[in-house]
Specification:
Layout (H helix, E strand, L loop, with lengths): L7 E7 L6 H10 L8 E6 L4 H9 L2 E5 L5 H11 L4 E6 L3 E2 L3 H11 L3 E11 L13 H10 L1 E4 L4 H6 L12 E4 H4 L3 H4 L6 H12 L2 E13 L13 H27 L5 H20 L5 H12 L5 H5 L1 H10 L3 H13 L14
Parallel strand pairs: 1-2, 1-4, 2-3, 6-9
Antiparallel strand pairs: 4-8, 5-9, 6-8, 7-9
Helix pairs in contact: 9-10, 10-11, 11-12, 11-14, 12-14, 14-15
Length: 354
């Protein structure tokens, strides 16, 4: 039975980047009402003794992990952690001051809750607020308007198909009970991208309750070295980078689908297949070599899972796909234009700040 105040472990991941790491760990400490009660583990491929000493002074434990895949870093830190509830933070993001207090309270009063996804505030490389359009604006606004939504155990099928917004984006905005991931670390190690999707579907397989919360508890940084960001002002580089990102997603989504298929052959499996099908549409739009024939194939795949939540929550990409059949160049122009709205030209990250 969960304790009234569950222990918290925060897993911070970093790869080939140190500029924001100290600030990320400091944000965890600032959000912990108990001062140093939350356990912090930093999983990184970097070896930097001065940085490790600085993190140690903040009470963080450094774990060297050579593998590039974010899932391998997460799995190593989770295996080394002790908390009943796990929070996740990418090195370039920051917790807002109320984050850990809210997580501890929500999980403490609800023994059936296994997954929490809350809202984010986008920020730029300097840490200044950005409008929602700079990152997942539709989801941020939708989650804010929603307030709170519960996916109760025993009713996942109905709740999944009725979702008004995507139930995850940004691992830094997710907290789960240890039971969600402890028995699935071998799957997690195979996930190179989309750890947020892994956490959501792993939580569904536990049969517990899931919650979406409109409160902004994490700052999500939009900048040049963010793997899913690209400067829309530079068309060639933009499409090259976004296409590579899209193509890199599917192997990880395939791993998640395989994990789900071992336990569920119904609505949960349909949901992950819907996610993969939508990403196939995005990938086709972003790939400047893709043809109308490629888009017809992608649309057929999505129509097979039209009762999944992705069919409804991504109506815009379906419209874009149909327009693509008329004019691929027009759709790519519109896509790049939409991506540039609300998002500044992403600047190089600053040097490490103390």
């Amino acid at each position: 039975m969960p304790s009234p105040s569950p222990s918290i472990s925060v897993v911070v991941t970093a790869h080939d980047r140190t500029e924001y790491l100290v600030g990320a760990v400091r944000s965890v400490r600032a959000s912990d009402p108990g001062g140093r009660e939350a356990e912090i583990l930093v999983a990184s491929n970097l070896q930097d003794p001065p940085l490790e000493e600085e993190l140690s002074k903040l009470g963080a434990r450094f774990l060297p992990v050579r593998e590039r895949a974010v899932g391998a870093k997460l799995a190593a830190a989770i295996a080394a952690s002790s908390g009943e509830v796990l929070c996740f933070l990418e090195d370039d993001d920051r917790f807002l001051p109320s984050k850990i207090g809210v997580v501890r309270s929500v999980f403490g009063v609800d023994p059936h809750l296994v997954y929490l996804h809350h809202n984010v505030q986008p920020i730029d490389a300097r840490g200044l607020p950005l409008p929602p359009e700079s990152y997942r604006g539709r989801e941020i606004r939708g989650l804010s308007a929603l307030g709170s939504l519960r996916l109760p155990a025993g009713a996942h099928a109905q709740a999944l198909r009725a979702l008004p917004v995507d139930p995850y984006f940004a691992a830094s905005a997710i907290a789960v009970r240890r039971s969600v991931v402890e028995a699935r670390l071998s799957w997690l190690r195979q996930v190179n991208l989309v750890p947020d999707a892994f956490l959501f579907f792993a939580a569904l397989l536990t049969g517990g309750d899931l919650m979406l919360d409109g409160r902004h508890l994490t700052e999500y940084r939009v900048h040049a070295t963010n793997v899913s960001s690209a400067d829309a002002a530079e068309p060639e580089k933009f499409f090259e980078r976004m296409s590579a990102w899209s193509q890199g997603l599917d192997p990880s989504l395939r791993v998640i689908e395989q994990m789900v298929s071992e336990k569920d052959r119904g609505a949960v499996l349909e949901a992950i297949r819907g996610v993969r099908a939508v990403q196939r549409l995005y990938s086709t739009v972003r790939d400047r070599t893709a043809t109308r024939s490629d888009m017809r194939v992608a649309l057929r795949e999505l129509r097979r899972v039209r009762s999944s939540y992705s069919w409804r929550t991504h109506a815009d990409v379906r419209r874009a796909a149909n327009l693509f059949l008329l004019s691929p160049s027009l759709v790519r122009w519109l896509y790049r234009r939409r991506k540039s709205r609300g998002r500044p030209s992403v600047a190089s990250p600053p040097g490490r700040t103390g």
